[in-house]
Amino acid sequence: MQVTNILILILGLGLFAFYLGRGRSLALAKPLGGIRHIHSLPSYYGAHVALWCALPSLLLLGLWMIFDGPLINSIVLKSLAAGGMVVESSGESLLMNKITNLAQGVLPRKSADPELVAAADLMLRLEVISRWSLTALMMTLSLIGFGWSWSRISSSFRARPRVEKVMEKLLLACACVAIFTTLGIVLSVLFESIQFFRSVPIDDFVFGLDWSPQTAIREDQVGSSGSFGAVPLFVGTLLISAVAMCIAVPVGLMSAIYLAEYASQSVRGFAKPALEVLAGIPTVVYGFFAALTVAPFLRDLGASFGLSVSSESALAAGGVMGVMIIPFISSLADDVITAVPQSMRDGSLAMGATKSETVRNVIIPAALPGIVGGIMLAVSRAIGETMIVVMAAGMAAKLTANPLDSVTTVTVQIVTLLTGDQEFDSPKTLAAFALGLMLFVVTLMLNIFALQIVKKYREQYD
Amino acid sequence: MTKPVNTSVNTPVKSPVNNLEKVRKSLGRRNRSEQLFRWYGRLAILIGLAAVTVLFTDIVSKGHGAFRIAYLQLEVEYNKDLIGVDNLTDSEQLVLGNWQAVPKQALRQQFTDVSGRSDKRKLYGLVSNGAGFDLKDRLLANPQLLGTKETVWVLADDDIDTYYKSWLDGEPYAARLSDKQVKWIGELHDQGKIRLQFNSNLFTRGDSREPEQAGIRGAVMGSLFTLLLTLMLSFPIGVAAAIYLEEFAPKNGWTDFIEVNINNLAAVPSIIFGLLGLAIFINFFHVPRSVPIVGGLVLTLMTLPTIIITSRAAIKSVPPSIREAALGMGASKYQMVMHHVLPLALPGMLTGAIIGMAQALGESAPLLMIGMVAFIVDIPAGFNDPATVLPVQIFLWADSPERAFIEKTSAAIMVLLSFLIVMNTSAVWLRKRLERRW
User: Fold this and answer.
1) Chain A within 8 Å of B34 (Cβ-Cβ)?
2) What does pTM read for this prediction?
3) Tens-place pLDDT, residues A88-110
4) Which chain A residues are Cβ-neighbours of B38 within 8 angstroms?
5) In angstroms, how far is the first alpha carbon of chain B from the final one?
6) Count of beta carbons in the 10 Å neighbourhood of residue B8
7) What domains can you pick out in chain A, each with its CATH number?
8) CA distance B16 to A4
9) Which of B232, B269, B271 is nearest to B373 (CA)?
10) FRET partner for A217 with CA separation of 20 to 30 A, picked from A371, B196, B239, B282?
């Protein structure tokens, strides 16, 4: 039986159990003189039965889905080993892939190794057994849970507190998804990175100046080892982010100041949402715009001045990224500027300062922590931005600070290393996870720091 | 204007006069700098607005052409011998049939003076190489046509389409055509046998290597399935988490830790979620690659922080008096939340969910990691079919070398943007409509 079918079946059973439980409590209440005489409302009795019916078997389903795949795989591998086949631990995943493909009929059976075909058959058999035993176990659990909770329904049974306690635990579990996500991110990038750093020393990675992750197929080929010095990627990322900030910070900040301090209500009502349109445009659209409109335009412009501008210049990618970040900075800066107390403005204006002097000498200094925090959040966005640079920046890792040249970034390399088919244990793939780790750590630090600053600043004026 | 006021005759107050002089002298400069500052502000706003305008006009000017596509009028004959089919119910014959021969023969009859292999090849290049299969579908829908002749409009090749459109606009782009092909198109145009029609392929077909046959239907369906799963998972989980954090959570370290986590996840680069999906869902749980299930899971984790944060704001905006009244009437805490707070906060939560979905619809970077970037012709029919999504389709087309794909990409972007505009305006409308002021 398919997992989705089991799921639907169990949910249906739960619903059924709800009505049965509710019906029973109503039947109990009737001779007593109405539902006032039982402890909880009838729906709570129903919910109690339904929870007992559905929850344990759903938990079992979750556990089963985690452990069933690896277990079947190990049994299949053992059967191969018992058949006299030598399975090296490095070739295991490749072999398993082959067997799974055979079992699913993706690979033709005729041309395959008979031992593997046998293994694939075993795998299919085990899967069928696993699914049916899962169904049987879940049904039994459901029925036991149903029967037990059904028998407990009585006029003095405290159904409501019990149901509420379970619901609260469920809510807590949902809130913990965020923690599990963070944990998942940390574990996934950390484990693969540690594996990567086993084959490539960490200082070669962090301080190395040469990036060419192509590992050769033959031993004697040039550059067969591949070199993983990530400094050119860091420099490229910083260069593009710097270009983006050069555009986004002045424009975003000035528009926030103008909107908060000068603009009339009607101008603000029109310009603020219009600027925020920029934030809602998908990054792939910016990437297309950067690669097909801005980059050729800059190249032609450069050519007319006699400058050679690469058609994948950091300027084009960074510039478009800057445009994307404008609304981010302007709305954050707008928030902190409007949060500056009116009394500070009035004080400054009363002393005879002009509006711009007030802004420059009073409001900006007062709002500075918030603005800096906002800019840091924007930098972390620029560093982690992917689609624009994948489409508009280069692939070749060059160590240069010239914005007219083409550079590559951390995110571009992650995408190029990981798209398409890949085996999981080559240093090339693992390098992407090491880059991901760097990216995660850097953006995390920027975010935590920035959020701290913004929070402190808010408390100051609240 | 102001007279210095002498409080005593003997001590003339000198310094205020000087300061006033100073202030008066500097006023001109200060006012000029004030004006300059204002202009900087206006300039910044104008740059922002100009960026919006340029972006939209660029996309629209590149993409509007893709909604119409060139068709050629041909006199085709469904000749049994030519196709090699005499029974339309025999599936083997249908597969083996030489369908492309039909438009080829029609072209030879249209241009009787063409001879020689290379010229003929160029002639056949006028129609799309999928034209024969379109005719096959037409024949299967109308079996009585077998053996007869009719005049139909067939799809032109993408190079012809590009040239014809640019020629109509007055700046012909013939780089990929030979002089003879240009001449033939001129003749066809004079006879009224080439025209632009509404490009229904764009909305009814999946991806293709041939620009004239490529459509966004597959990507739109993929996006739909992915978003459906994202919504089904992230909305309940997000709302539940928000309810817990706002109403039930004790103030302790654990709750703070959850909060810090949520705030950080909202700012983690989206590509990191792709790495998570690859390592955890695909490698550990063996969820198949390229399917809406894995895409939906990754996007769920990505949009969850947004939904939690907006839902918490919605719950916070429900006044405490409602809570106190419910508790005062004897409701339990859980009943108070479910019966009173949640219904009142729901409009705000829905707005947040729509915004989160709009974000997920436009997201492509994490999906590149989990294999939703494959070239997929078939239109996905469920959560378990290989699929791609609209933004990734845009990415794939933008990478294609054919010139006609630029137009298609822009058209796909226009479709994506219109979906986003609809979602965001409905969020704004919903907020205006359902918002309650307390």
Assistant:
1) yes
2) 0.88
3) 666 676 777 778 777 777 777 77
4) 258, 262, 356
5) 52
6) 7
7) 3-157 (no CATH), 227-461 (1.10.3720.10)
8) 86
9) B271
10) B282
